[in-house]
Structures are given as structure tokens and as C-alpha cells.
Amino acid sequence: MIKVFYDGKCGLCSKEINHYKRICNKKKFDWVDISRKSKALSEFGISQSQGLMYLHATVDDKKIFIGVDAFVLIWKNLPRWKYLAFFVNLPLIKTICSLIYKYFAKKRY
Question: Could you give the CA distance from residue 109 to residue 12 in angstroms, rounded to a whole number?
Fold first, then answer.
């Protein structure tokens, strides 16, 4: 099970996550709005404010994926999105995407 922790109060974030919810395999994903569940990431040593800043995801509550890595994990498991996951996961592209994402996340937060 892939558990995704997102900021439900962010309009853009919610819109994107709602799209993923519509197209995903419901048995494969658990979507957690951390703006409503403040302690959701505490078992991973991540505060609510850290969780609100960046998208987080985990597979079977073992390894935590943050930011672009979380998106790649989600996309790999969505119909027709695996190609974007492959592209974004290329080293140079991933570095650029990570920088852009971090800039956007800090600006938004």
C-alpha cells in the first residue's frame, strides 16, 4: 500500500491529488490529508510543518519518499503516468525538477 501525505489546504495540491484519486487503483493508495491529521507523519520523525511543506509518501510504512521522489513513486503506480515517472527520474531532469519543486514549495509555504 502506498500512503501519500499531502497538504489538503493547498488548492493546487488538493486539485492534483484529487485527480490522482480519480484515476488510481483504490486498493493501492491511501491518501492522508496532513492538514487535518497533524500527527500522521510523526512515526517517521517528521513534523506537521515539514509534512505540509513537501509531499511525502511511503510504501508499506517502510521507506519515506519526499518531494519529487514521492511524485515519481505515485506516477509509477498510475495508469499512463509511468512514462512521466521514467522521464523525471532521469538524473539531470530529476535534479532540475527537485530544485524547481523546492523553490515552489518554500514560496507556497
Answer: 12
* Res 42: pLDDT: 94
Mean pLDDT of 70-82: 96
What is the pTM for the complete model shown?
Answer: 0.94
Backbone angles phi, psi at 26, to 5 degrees: -60, -25
Q: What is the pairing mode between strands 56-59 and 2-6?
A: antiparallel
The pLDDT value recorded for residue 108 is: 82
The per-residue pLDDT for 77 is 97
CB 5 within 8 A of CB 55: yes
- Specify the pairing of strand 63-66 against strand 56-59: antiparallel
**In 43-66, which positions are buried (b, 16+ CB within 10 angstroms) versus exposed (e)?**
eeebebeebbbbbbbbeeeeebbb
Partner residues linked to 31 by β-bridges: 4
